[in-house]
Design a protein that fits this description.
- By secondary structure, this protein is mostly beta strands.
- 11% of the residues lie in helices and 38% in strands.
- It is built from four helices and 27 strands.
- The strands form seven sheets. Strands 1-24-23-22-21 form a five-stranded mixed β-sheet, with no helix packed on it. A four-stranded antiparallel β-sheet has the order 2-27-26-25, with no helix packed on it. Strands 3-4-5-6 form a four-stranded antiparallel β-sheet, with no helix packed on it.
- The protein is globular and about 70 Å long.
- About 3% of the residues have low confidence.
């Protein structure tokens, strides 16, 4: 089959272009031929397949998205559905401190739960509400070098700062900072970064809560964002952003300068809620609840492998790596936390 654009499609493209130019409100007519006809989609498919999917803007090959997730036995799993100790209701963000303790944003229970390095329940704190020490469906959490906690208190539209012994210290948010559903928080090199998801931007603060600058804004170009969720930082302080709606991970320097991006095949919609972690040698780990898997890339962005738990695994969401070489993933679909040793995940 010839890969030249068929005459019928070319004619349609010309007509739509003219109509879009003539009518100020018709600018989106020119997109119709990209999505609205089976013959157009069939032609696009054949063109992409003939090039093995590359070279394209993302440099990916035709085979990249087809890699099947391997089932890898976990070191252990934690929790079950419910509201009691060591139970969860749609857990999301995870973080680990220097002792290997694991902090879980137990989202629908509006609290934080803490487990020791062996997976034993230690404590929980928080109740639902807008007051100090209360939360409204927290989604993200980070631990700073002093052991303090920074919590994305999502539907209170704020970031909560708590001491290592769980005392409320301060909150960033409200009218002054204007968050809209922040899903993640990152502490890196003395700065606090917030994924201001609904406002489609990343905001950087100092530890005292003073806003330093922001970047992003809605769009598909480099540095623009659609529904940013997970955040992570590498050894150099570069910031990785799960740009969910654009199906990619964008990488910026500490000051928000765009460096590069890599595609993630599988993120489908705003409910994917992907989170990120950076592992040894700056390897990149991303959750993908749309396909029920974890995706691993090397530092250059090359896909290394995908995997899932060897048990029921539905909606992997939060992810964290501790200093003892363990990777934990929250599954908000089964209300469990899965833990793997990184050594078992070597490609």
């Amino acid at each position: 089959m010839s890969l030249a654009t068929p005459p019928a499609i070319r004619s349609l493209q010309r007509k739509l272009y003219v109509k879009a130019k003539k009518e100020p409100t018709g600018r989106f007519y020119s997109l119709f031929d990209k999505i609205g006809r089976p013959d157009v989609l069939e032609h696009a498919y054949r063109c992409a397949k003939s090039r093995q999917g590359a070279p394209g803007v993302d440099g990916a090959t035709w085979r990249t998205p087809a890699q099947k997730a391997a089932a890898i036995p976990a070191l252990r799993s934690l929790g079950s559905g419910g509201s009691g100790p060591a139970q969860f209701a749609e857990p999301r963000g995870l973080a680990a401190d220097g002792r290997g303790n694991l902090y879980v944003a137990d989202t629908k229970n509006s609290r934080i739960e803490v487990f020791d390095s062996n997976g034993q329940f230690l404590r929980q704190f928080g109740t639902k509400g807008p007051g100090p020490g209360q939360f409204n469906e927290p989604c993200g959490i980070a631990v700073d070098p002093q052991g303090d906690l920074w919590i994305a208190d999502t539907w209170n539209q704020r970031i909560v700062h708590m001491s290592a012994d769980n005392r409320f210290l301060s909150a960033i948010g409200g009218e002054e900072n204007g968050f809209f559903g922040p899903r993640a928080v990152l502490v890196s090199r003395g700065s606090v970064y917030v994924a201001d998801t609904g406002n489609k931007k990343i905001v950087r603060f100092d530890p005292q809560g003073r806003r330093l600058f922001e970047w992003g804004g809605a769009g598909i170009g480099p540095g623009q964002l659609v529904e940013p969720v997970g955040l992570a930082a590498d050894a150099a302080g570069n910031v990785y952003v799960a740009d969910t709606g654009n199906h990619r991970i964008q990488i910026f320097d500490a000051d928000g300068k765009f460096l590069r991006q890599l595609p993630v095949f599988g993120w489908k919609d705003f409910y994917t809620e992907p989170y990120l972690a950076i592992g040894p040698s700056d390897s990149i780990f991303a959750t993908d609840s749309s396909t029920g898997r974890i995706v691993q890339y090397d530092s250059s962005g090359a896909l290394k492998r995908t995997w899932k738990a060897d048990g029921e695994f539905k909606l992997p969401t939060g992810i964290a790596i501790d200093s003892f070489g363990r990777l934990s993933v929250s599954d908000r679909g089964t209300n469990r936390i899965w833990v793997w040793a990184l050594t078992s995940l070597s490609p």
